[in-house]
Each structure stands twice: as structure tokens, then as C-alpha cells.
Amino acid sequence: MNAKLIESLVQIIQSLSEEERLLLEKKLAAHETQTDFDNLAQTLAELRQICAEENYTIEVPPRQDRSHPFAESLNDIPV
């Protein structure tokens, strides 16, 4: 970004009320989350396409429970 554009954006943001700033932050956060999700979805679609083209199957092992010492230690705490 060039310096003039950044300066203009800073001035615009500084002119916003606190309520407007909070709303802008929420909208930017929602956009980031959606963008991350879209990128992940696109990457997985590409992976599926490559696997299909190469006649490759990804083996997913069955789920199994693992020990969780911290969670198990909570059972030992008297209430």
C-alpha cells in the first residue's frame, strides 16, 4: 500500500465513532473467518481432485480415544 492511501485510511478510521469502530472490527473479523474457511474449502477441493486424478485414496484410520491426564485428574479433586 502506498503511504497516502494508508494515511487516508487512518484518517477515516480516526473519524469513526467508537460504535462504528466496533462494528467495523466485527465485520472484518467475520470476513477473515469466511476467507479462511473459503481457502480451506478450496484447498480440500484441490486435494480431492488430485487424489481422483492419481487414483489415490487417503486412508483415514478409525477414531480411538486417547488418555487425557489433565481431564482425568479433575476427577480426583474433591468437590
Structure in words:
- This protein has 79 residues and is an all-alpha fold.
- The chain has a domain at 18-53.
- Helices cover 70% and strands 0% of the residues.
- The chain has 3 helices and no strands.
- The chain has helices at 3-15, 18-53, 69-74.
- The longest helix is centred in the middle third of the chain and has 36 residues, at 18-53.
- The protein is flat, with a radius of gyration of 24 Å.
- The model has no long low-confidence stretch (mean pLDDT 84).
Summarize the structure.
With 79 residues, the protein is mainly alpha-helical. It is 70% helix and 0% strand. The longest helix is centred in the middle third of the chain and has 36 residues, at 18-53.
Using brief descriptors, characterize the structure shown.
single chain, 79 residues
Strand content: under 5%
- On the 0 to 100 scale, the average pLDDT is 84
Low-confidence blocks of residues: none
Sheet having the most strands:
none
Helical content (DSSP H or I, runs of 4+):
55-70%
SSE map:
Elements: H1 3-15, H2 18-53, H3 69-74
